[in-house]
UniProtKB/TrEMBL annotation:
The lineage of its organism: Bacteria, Pseudomonadati, Pseudomonadota, Betaproteobacteria, Burkholderiales. This is PD-(D/E)XK endonuclease-like domain-containing protein. Residues 16-264 form the PD-(D/E)XK endonuclease-like domain. InterPro entries: PDDEXK_AddAB-type.
Length: 267
């Protein structure tokens, strides 16, 4: 990492402010841990939905069965280390859930959107924060799309998991940092203006379900308002101090989620 240039991936903003000590371990010190079967399930769903959406965008024939082939291949040939015993979920059950979710997405969710980009590559975006401090936003939209709506360009982000829905509605709390980063980076890369973000929630619980959130303004969470600093400014202050505060009360403070857990003084 360059001196006074701190790189923050779009997907890691939530972790930075949940437990900066854990974030430092993963993103600065390079600590790693195997993923679990549920995370692998989510990755497979994302691969299948992206294949389906990309084909539609390119005008190439693609059925849910075709996308299912991509999903199954991703599930059985992961590109990262997986702890198969971590979640108490068999690969066969994960495949069953993932395929149900994929079909639901293709039939109920995808037709509602007019995508103009699917998992597009974004240029890094440097934000000068004063006193020689630069926060560099990075990340590929590997689980997000860009859609055209009557009101303008929107960034829908696909989220999977067992808690992405509450009372049948897509959970948006805690999502704005990542989608807001995507908005900023997409605007800078494509030289366009976005009007907001959406969450496409695909539940991978024992009863798969799907929901789409209303459009919301995620960008302002990152840049703030005249009298309210955004997350980028708060992060810059943290980076200037050189301190990455721990949070032993974090719900993610466990060996399952934190690569630094075994050596952490504060847990």
């Amino acid at each position: 990492m360059e001196p006074n240039v701190f790189t923050v991936r779009a997907s890691s903003w939530g972790r930075l402010f949940d437990c900066a000590h854990a974030w430092e371990g993963t993103h600065i010190l390079g600590m790693k841990k195997p993923t679990g079967v549920r995370a692998l399930l989510g990755t497979a769903v994302h691969a299948g939905t992206a294949a389906y959406d990309r084909a539609r965008l390119e005008g190439t024939p693609c059925t849910p069965d075709d996308a299912a082939g991509v999903l199954v291949d991703e599930l059985h040939n992961p590109g990262q280390d997986v702890d198969m015993a971590q979640d108490g979920l068999s690969l066969a059950e994960a495949e069953r859930i993932a395929l149900v979710v994929l079909v639901k997405y293709c039939a109920e969710v995808a037709p509602r959107f007019e995508y103009i980009d699917v998992e597009t590559t974004l240029d890094p975006l440097n934000i000068e924060c004063g006193n020689g401090m630069t926060v560099r936003l990075t990340g590929t939209m590997d689980r997000a799309r860009v859609a055209a709506t009557e009101g303008g360009i929107v960034v829908p982000d696909v989220k999977t998991g067992t808690r992405v829905l509450v009372d049948g509605k897509a959970v948006t709390q805690g999502r704005a940092a990542q989608t807001g980063t995507y908005q900023l980076m997409y605007e800078a890369t494509k030289k366009v203006t976005t009007v907001g973000s959406q969450i496409i929630a695909l539940s991978t619980s024992s009863r798969p379900a799907a929901a789409v959130s209303p459009i919301f303004d995620a960008r302002r969470v990152m840049v703030g308002e005249p009298d309210k600093p955004g997350l980028i400014e708060h992060a810059a202050a943290m980076f200037r101090s050189g301190l990455f505060p721990p949070n032993p009360s974090s719900v993610l403070c466990s060996p399952k989620y934190c690569a630094r857990w075994s050596s952490c003084l504060f847990r």
